Amino acid sequence: MSVRVQEEDFDVGAELERLTRDNKRIGGLAVFVGLVREMHVRDGLHRDRIDALTLEHYPGMTEKALEEIEDEAQRRWPLEATLIVHRHGRLAAGDRIVLVAVGSAHREATFEACEFLVDWLKTKAPFWKLEDTSAGEQWVGAHEGDTQAAARWEKKG
Amino acid sequence: MKVKYFAWMKRTVGVAEEQVDVPADVRTVADLVMWLRARSAGHAEALAEGAAFGAAVDHRTAPFDTPLAGAQEVAFFPPFTGG
């Protein structure tokens, strides 16, 4: 059970190894790794190339928000291990942004809880993306799809 | 109390944070928004009626009717776009 917000990259293999090393009750892990996309659809017609983005966050609140999301996942599913690592600062296309890993005795809980964690952190953790595009700097707007993805978990549990 | 602004709101207001002494009749987040709008054109634009932004009181997401009694830090920010 841990949450980290950091500027530096993370090593997925090393993180998963550390997460499972001391817990033999874990029967499976579901892992999500978010990356900086190279292309971004602006309005369905135009595509601006993203060279890099800067992730701003709210130190103090971010960690608290991620821990609350993690706690909620723990309440809803029988989880043996959870890990959220979210980067901030300047990231280039192809860079890793976020790692979410969930371990449980059985796979159903890991898939569901992993999806839940990603959906909720997108809408409930204070991060903002500033894209450095071929057309200049642009703050990324919230995605209606993300809001809907997060909302479907509100009805559950 | 301390007021913080994030993402585009920080640029529009012109500062990342400021210390404010609010009058006693500023009791909720909504009252604070109204009061801050009068501070500058940047504040008025960032915190305009209908602008999409949220708030946190002492590091916790807070609806606009949240009371400010005892609050140390209030933050305003656009919708989150992490992950």
From TrEMBL, chain A:
Gene Ontology molecular-function annotations: molybdopterin synthase activity
Catalytic activity line of the entry: 2 [molybdopterin-synthase sulfur-carrier protein]-C-terminal-Gly-aminoethanethioate + cyclic pyranopterin phosphate + H2O = molybdopterin + 2 [molybdopterin-synthase sulfur-carrier protein]-C-terminal Gly-Gly + 2 H(+)
Name of the top EC class for this enzyme: transferase
Signal peptide boundaries: none
A UniProt-annotated Pfam family: MoaE
Organism superkingdom: Bacteria
Gene Ontology biological process terms from the UniProt entry: Mo-molybdopterin cofactor biosynthetic process
EC number: 2.8.1.12
Keyword Ribosomal protein part of the UniProt annotation: no
Pathway named in the protein's UniProt entry: Cofactor biosynthesis; molybdopterin biosynthesis
Bilayer-crossing regions: none
Alphabetic keyword roster: Molybdenum cofactor biosynthesis
Function: Converts molybdopterin precursor Z into molybdopterin. This requires the incorporation of two sulfur atoms into precursor Z to generate a dithiolene group. The sulfur is provided by MoaD.
Protein family per UniProt: Belongs to the MoaE family.
PANTHER family: MOLYBDOPTERIN SYNTHASE RELATED
UniProt protein name: Molybdopterin synthase catalytic subunit
The organism of origin for this protein: Enhydrobacter aerosaccus
Automatic annotation (TrEMBL), chain B:
Parts of the chain that traverse the membrane: none
InterPro entries reported for this sequence: Beta-grasp_dom_sf, Mopterin_synth/thiamin_S_b, ThiS/MoaD-like
Highest taxon of source: Bacteria
Gene3D superfamilies hit by this protein: 3.10.20.30
Family annotation (NCBIfam families): moaD (TIGR01682)
Protein name: Molybdopterin synthase subunit MoaD
Source organism: Enhydrobacter aerosaccus
